[in-house]
Fold:
Amino acid sequence: MSTRTHERASLTDHWLSLDLDAWTRHVVRRHFNPELGSPYWLKRATELSFDPMDITRYDQLAEFGPFPPGDLRGIDPGDLVPRTVPRPLIGRVWESGGTTGDPVRVFYTEDMMTHRVEWRRWSYLFDGYQAGRTWLQATPSGPHQIGNGAIELSEQLAGLVYGIDMDPRWIKQLIRAGKMKELGEYTDHVLAQIVDILRSQHVHYLNTTPALLQKLIARRPELVAALDGVRLGGTHMSPQMYQDFVKALDGGLVRSGYGNTFGNAVSLHPEDGGAILPYAPTYPQVTMSVVDPEDFKTTVDKGQSGQLKLTVLHEDLFLPNLLERDEATRYDTKGEWPVDGVFNVRPLQVSQAAPEGLY
Structure:
């Protein structure tokens, strides 16, 4: 094992070894430090009925209540970053796909990007993707963090990466407006880019969404069958879809990821022929739980379904109790992960006003 590879393995091992209560205290005190805390949380502290500095355990984060996602639409993303991080801030502001309205924005510091990249690399190798291969990144680009995956793949897995142009917000706008003809034309435009590369270049792996893969299989099944594997994210993937994809790839690798602009999870190996598609959070900076949709403080029993709740505990970004627009089933990691995971993630509610689209 090279020195760099060993350092990476040691980094993920270190994160998994951390005590969640101790990490919670560290992050909360960093964001609420009177002199060097984050401007957003120092302002919010004046509105809270308790002193955040009294927080000593992870489960006490429920006292903050559900985080208002609307706050991420209007504030300066830098206000969420502790002043411990030198100003002016240097880096990228990432945006959501705008499924439920105007996009939300989050700034990622260098340490946050390191966390994301190293866990993604761990996940790809754990899943069985080989380094030094050629990829096609057929996902949104622009301000969407998933588009940065092309750079991450080439740097972390020493591969050549092709890409396409895709605007998920335009797709969702067409769906909301009921413009199905225009939606079909844009979908054709996206698929044509994918087909052109797969037809003319030797690509080992395709990184795309389940919705796009379904359409690609229907249109050019021979191009899918020729792949060594696919990596899926964005729109949800059901167990039946997983089984269809495995068949279409003729023995190729099929794995999926779960995540969004705020935080991510790594895929664990499918169970029972794909009937269970589990994920574990990128601990301890991200944790997930499955809660009662009527009471976010009540976690459902293992094997039961509910609304997915995300908590972001980065040193440079604190977002407690984010109630996702997804539901999932609580997954018992059986001691192989410091916390529970989730499986079979699907939309909590799909409507014309909040469509999945192609991403």
In short: The CA atoms of residues 137 and 175 lie 24 Å apart.
